[in-house]
Design a protein that fits this description.
Elements (H helix, E strand, L loop, with lengths): L1 H14 L15 H16 L1 H11 L6 H16 L4 H13 L7 H13 L11 H7 L5 H10 L7 E4 L3 H7 L2 E3 L4 E4 L16 E3 L2 H4 L12 E4 L6 H8 L3 E5 L3 H14 L4 E4 L12 E7 L21 H17 L1 E11 L8 H8 L5 E9 L9 E8 L2
Parallel strand pairs: 5-6, 5-8, 6-7, 8-9
Antiparallel strand pairs: 1-3, 1-4, 2-3, 9-11, 10-11
Length: 390
């Protein structure tokens, strides 16, 4: 059953172009089966380019795309998951026998047996050529090669705590990374962990926590958070003493934001379901955070399917430009704006900030920072602190 579900999810992601985020990994499965289902699917996506290469060696005529998804799933088990060979072959063939493609069972069996007899992992990039082409605008071959290795890595589970970092690190068996971030040594169901129900901490990657620390001081400051949901950075601002107006355009995401803020028991906040670029402000702010919608290319550990996307950069850049422009128009003199994206691309980061600042001579770029999805940061992020000087 688990392999059947994995096949269906891969069809959704590879052929129907759905995201991994919207897939159902629950299906009333046991915890072990849920974990195995996720391992099957995510491992296939993480190694997609190598799997395609291996498959091309044993299949000369392109198979039906749904059958191809099952073959990729089978090869994943042979090359990248510690599954007994007989179980992999038998279970994978049984899946196709129960489907409308049952007449192709012997074909699938033959291909997988050939892969098993010639078991070899190709020494090539994990990235499809289309994604490498995107990255090549900002990175050289060696840099892209290093980034491609990060696609193989599963993300750690980081949390941000309100206070008592050392005590919570001990309580939850975690390691203090920096600031208020703890990385759990033994990731498990967060809902069952001490402190979750009491709102003592929230899930947030270390890299995602960094933009808020760009601000100089937020205590008792009027702060706007332009793209607030699901609320990790909003929680940071509140925890630092800011008085927040939190905006998000999505009804669904606003609901999540409200639930998270309620669990965390923060009070000094007004949540507004609106596009800040179209909102009529009746006051200016001391600080504004613009954690803008972006390509998400920096989240490849957590969202490996980002390498499969056909990203509409032009539309994203328009949205990013407008959000940052709106922020600069609504901050006080000596006020600060932090702009951030979880993108690896300079046109969503350094270049966009430079372009916007050309139109705003009363602002200066105080500092900017870029981090990459390595073992420390987990995600790629760009962040910049801008200050209104007159």
């Amino acid at each position: 059953m688990v392999r059947d579900l994995a096949w269906k999810i891969l069809i959704n992601v590879l052929n129907k172009k759905e995201t991994l985020k919207v897939q159902n990994f629950d299906n009333n499965l046991s915890d072990n089966d849920k974990a195995f289902l996720k391992l099957l699917v995510y491992s296939t996506i993480r190694h997609i380019n190598k799997l395609e290469f291996v498959l091309s060696k044993f299949v000369k005529k392109r198979p039906d795309k749904d059958i191809k998804a099952l073959l990729l799933l089978g090869i994943t088990q042979i090359l990248f998951i510690d599954v007994p060979a007989h179980a992999c072959l038998f279970e994978t063939v049984e899946v196709i026998k129960k489907s409308k493609f049952k007449n192709n069972a012997s074909f699938v069996n033959g291909v997988l047996r050939n892969v098993l007899r010639n078991k070899e992992i190709p020494d090539i990039s994990n990235f499809p050529s289309s994604f490498e082409k995107v990255l090549s605008k900002d990175y050289n071959k060696d840099e892209i090669s290093l980034l491609s290795k990060e696609l193989e890595q599963e993300p750690s589970l980081d949390i941000s705590v309100k206070s008592d970092v050392s005590n919570w690190a001990s309580e939850l068996d975690g390691e203090i990374i920096e600031n208020n971030t703890i990385r759990l040594n033994n990731p498990r169901q967060i809902f069952n962990l001490n402190g979750y129900d009491n709102g003592d901490w929230w899930v947030q990657s270390f890299a995602a926590s960094l933009p808020v620390f760009m601000f100089s001081d937020l205590k008792n400051k009027k702060v706007a958070d332009f793209c607030a949901a699901p609320g990790g950075k909003t929680a940071q601002i509140l925890n630092m003493g800011g008085k927040v107006q939190a905006f998000d355009i999505s009804n669904k995401r606003i609901k999540t934001l409200k639930e998270n803020i309620e669990r965390l028991k923060f009070k000094d906040i007004k949540i507004i379901n609106a596009n800040p670029c179209e909102f009529e402000f009746n006051e200016k702010f001391d600080a504004i955070l613009v954690d803008a919608p972006c390509s998400g290319t920096g989240t490849l550990r957590k969202n490996p399917d980002v390498v499969l996307k056909n990203i509409d950069f032009k539309n994203l850049e328009k949205i990013q430009f407008k959000l940052l422009e709106t922020a600069l128009l609504n901050v006080n003199i000596n006020g600060e704006v932090v702009y951030s994206t979880c993108s690896l691309m300079k046109k969503e980061g350094e270049l966009l900030v430079k372009q916007v600042l050309n139109n705003f001579k009363d602002f200066s770029l105080v500092k900017e920072k870029r981090v990459f999805p390595d073992n420390k940061y987990q995600e790629g992020f760009y962040m910049a602190l801008l200050k209104r000087i007159k």
